[in-house]
Amino acid sequence: RTQVLEQVLGCFALSLPRSPVCEGWPVQPDLNLDCHALADRIILSGLPGDVDEGELMSFFTKHGATGVALARSRIAVFASIAFPSSGEIVKFVGRGVHTFSDDQDTRLARLLPSNRACGSSKTSLPGLPAPVLSPGEHAGVLMLRWSPIVLAMGYIVELRPAGIQAEWSVVDALSGGFSKHSSSCRVSGLPSNIAFEARITYSATCGCSSDASDASTWCVAHPSPTPAPGYWPQVLPVAPTHQHLALAP
Question: Which terminus in the chain has less CB density within 10 A, N or C?
Fold first, then answer.
């Protein structure tokens, strides 16, 4: 089962009609959503901010869904539609047109080719929780931990000086990337008087990328264990270079 969960069974777009907010109000534009079908759920992206769980469940319960969870990031809204098994998902994806009705009308929902090619720069999967950044065992070292998920086939870790909106710099792993089995890394060669923050993204088997996680809490690379009263690490407006971000074996 773990092997199946790691795979994206299908990527498609869903054109889903919406009901008017109130009787007599204009019809709302259809939802045009990017979808990823997994073994036990369908991930939706491209949702507008006014969609709620009830609106989605009014359609998906007719196809065997058991629950929905919404996730809101800084730039996007995602939904996870849960199903009892892959059987219901295969049946849903196998049909190009689905009818559903409400108190007023019968509507058609359509499954279409994906709105954009998988592997594009557009994010279409929800991000991970913020990673945990902590001091390393020596000066200039930071330890980073994140929550792995079975959907991920690889991770990208980024670091920057905190508090100045600097550009994010990618942490380069010696192997060329962080594999699906990774959940932590050690970053060395950092200035020990600068506070840093980190974030993480992941990619799926289809090549699609996630939204970036929230930034971690600020952390200094091995600060003094007994700082002087009123001391705070200096934050310099200089982004770390890739040479500073070498991953120690």
Answer: C
The dihedral sign for the CA sequence 101, 104, 110, 115:
negative
Which candidate, 203, 219, 208, places its Cα nearest to that of 156? Answer: 203
Token representation of residue 139: 């000066």
Q: What is the identity of the amino acid at 153?
A: M
State whether residue 153 is helix, strand or coil: coil
Nearest-angstrom CA–CA distance, 90 and 215: 36
140, 190 contact by CB (below 8 A):
yes
Q: Where are the alpha helices (DSSP H) in the chain?
A: 2-5, 53-60, 86-93
Residues constituting the chain:
249
Identify whether the C-beta of residue 211 lies closer than 8 Å to the C-beta of residue 170. no
Beta-carbon contacts of residue 124 (< 8 Å; ≥ 6 apart) = 34, 36, 45, 46, 116, 208, 209
pLDDT tier for residue 228 given thresholds of 50, 70 and 90: very low
- What's the predicted TM-score (pTM) here? 0.67
Q: Which residue in this structure is represented by tokens 């049946």?
A: 91
pLDDT of 153 higher than 60: yes
Residue among 236, 239, 204 at smallest CA distance from 9: 204
Question: CA-CA distance, 245 to 163, in Å (whole number)?
Answer: 19
Measured CA to CA in angstroms, residue 80 lies from 40, 125, 139, 226 at distances of 10, 10, 42, 46
- How far is the C-alpha of 84 from the C-alpha of 9, rounded, in Å? 16
13 within 8 A of 187, measured Cβ to Cβ: no
CA atoms within 13 A on the CB side of 184: 10
pLDDT at 197: 95
